[in-house]
Amino acid sequence: MAPILLSLQIGFACMLMLAFTALWYGYLNPFTLFVASIIMGMGIDYSIHFMGNCQIQQSRSGDLKDALKKTIEHLFRPMFLAALTTASGLLTLLFAHFTGFYEFGVIAAVGITLSVTSALFALPVFILTLNGLPPSPDRRIIPDSWTNADIGRIINRLAIAALVISVPLIFMSQFTEFEHDFQKLRRPKRENVTRISTGVAQGGKRTTSTPAVVMGDDPAQLDQLYDTLMVRLHEEKDPYLRSFLTLKTFVPSQEDQEERLELIEEIRDLAEARVFDRATGSDSLNIALLRKFTAIDSTFSVEDLPAWSVDMLREKDDTYGNIGFIYGKFRGGDAREIAKFQDRYSHWNFGGQDLRVFSSQFIISDVVKVVKKDSLTMAVLIISVILLILILSLRKPRLVLISGASLLMGVIWTVSFMGLFTLAFDVCKLGIYNIIVIPTVIGVGIDATIYMLIAWIDTYRHRGGLKALYNNMGKMVMASTTTTMAGFGGVLFISHRGMRTIGEIAVLGLFLFLCSSQIFIPWLAQKLFQPTNQDEG
C-alpha cells in the first residue's frame, strides 16, 4: 500500500510539473531532460515524512482522520520551510546567464512546490480513498538497550572526531577543479568504429581544424593582418598559430610582385644560357621546367586565378579581400587552450577600426567563462538566501547557529571530498553540466537539518530524547535523503560522461549533508537546549 500511495503522490506532482513545462516553455533542453527523474527523488521526500509521521500519530490515537490532521499541523512548518529553502536554492539559477540553467531552476522549483503541496493536500485524499495507511513497521535504527545517555556520548565522540578530521580534510578543497577538457565529458568512443579525423597532428598533439573567421571593411586591413600574422608565425614562433589564409596569401601586393618579377627575370636569364642546352636526362627536364615557369613578365590579380581556388574568400557580392581565416594550433576540446587562442587572435584593430572575429570554438570558451562565474555567484547567493530564510523563519539566534553550523559543515565536507576524489580518481570535478547541482544539493541538504532541528525543539527534547529522535525523524530523514540520492543516482548509469558528473556530485553532496545533519544537529541541540530530567531514561 505504501509504495502505491508514494507513487500516486509523486506521479501527480510530476505530471503537473511537466504540464507547466509544456505550457510555459514548450520543450525540454539537455539540462531539463532529467528533471522529472530528479524531482521524483527529491519530491518523494515530503510524502515519506508525511506518511511516516501519520503512521506514528495513528498508532497513538487509533483515528486516521485525527492522525492526518495532527500530521498536517505538525509537519506544515518544517515541510514548508524545507521546500522554501530548496525552491529558493533552485531559483538562484535565475541569475545564471546560461539559458539551460535557469530553465532547470524554474522547472525544478515548480516541481518542488507541487511536490510539497501534493504531499500536504493530495496525499491525505489518496490515503482516505484507499482506506487508510499500512501499519508502521517497527524498524528502529537505535537498539533498545541503548539509553539517551549512551547515544549522547556516541554523538559527542562522533562530532569531535568529525571536527578533528575536518581540519586536515579542508586542505583537500584546493584540489577541487573545473573540468575544462570537453573530450572527457563526451560519450565514450565506441570500439571497432572507423572515425574520420578532423584534427591535424602537430608533433603528436592533436589540433583543431576549425578556423577563426576574420572580417574587415577594407582589403587593406586584411593585408595588415597578413603581415602581422607572418611575423607571429615565422619570427615570433607563436605556439598557438598553425597557419592563416587571406587574399594576400594567393595574390601578393603589386609592389611584392614587381620585386619578385625582377628576381624571376634574373633566374630566367640564367636558365636561358646556352651552356644548359647541353644538359641531358633529368637535368634537361629540370631546365625545361625552369624556363617554362620563369616565362612571366607581368603581375597578376585575383581574376587570373581559378575560381575554385578562392571561392572560400568570395563574399555574396562576388568581391574579395575582406575575409580571412586563422588556424590555431591547440586541442579543440580544451577550453583553457581555446581561451588562450581567443585572447591572442580575437581582437584586431587596424587603421582605428576593429576587425570582427568569429569561431565556433570561441563559444566553448565563452560558455565556460560564464558558467565558472555563475557557479561562484550562485554558491554565495544560495547560502545567503538560505541563511536569510532561516533567520526569518527560526528567529532565535541559537536555532540559526545550529542550522548554519550544520550547513557549513556540509559545504566544507562536500568541497573537500570533491578535491580528494579529483586528486585520487579524477572524478567529481565541476563542469558546465553539473553546475546546476550546486543549488540543488545545498537546498536539499539543508532540508535534513531543518527536519532534525525542528523535530528536536518541538517534540523529542521533551518526549523520548535522542533515541526517539533517531528512531522517528532521523529514520525518515535517512529514507527521504536516500530516495533523493537514488533519483540522482540514476544519472550515474548513462553513457554521457558529462551528464554522469551530475550524479557524482549530487550523491556525494547529499550523503555528506545527511551525515552532517545526523551528527551536528543533535550534538549542538543538546549543548544549547538542555533536556529535562525525564529525558535521561
Brief summary:
The protein has 537 residues and is mostly helical. The protein has 15 helices and seven strands. It has helices spanning 2-24, 35-61, 64-91, 99-129, 148-169, 219-235, 247-250, 254-271, 281-293, 335-345, 360-394, 397-425, 437-460, 465-489, 497-528, and strands at residues 200-202, 205-207, 212-215, 241-245, 323-328, 348-350, 353-358.
Rg (CA only): 34 Å
- Rough shape? elongated
- End-to-end separation in angstroms reads 35 Å
Give the H and E element order.
HHHHHEEEHEHHHEHEEHHHHH
Oligomer: single chain
Predict the CATH topology of the largest domain.
Multidrug efflux transporter AcrB transmembrane fold
Annotation keywords:
elongated; mainly alpha; two-stranded antiparallel ribbon; 537 residues; disordered C terminus; Multidrug efflux transporter AcrB transmembrane fold; 5-stranded antiparallel β-sheet
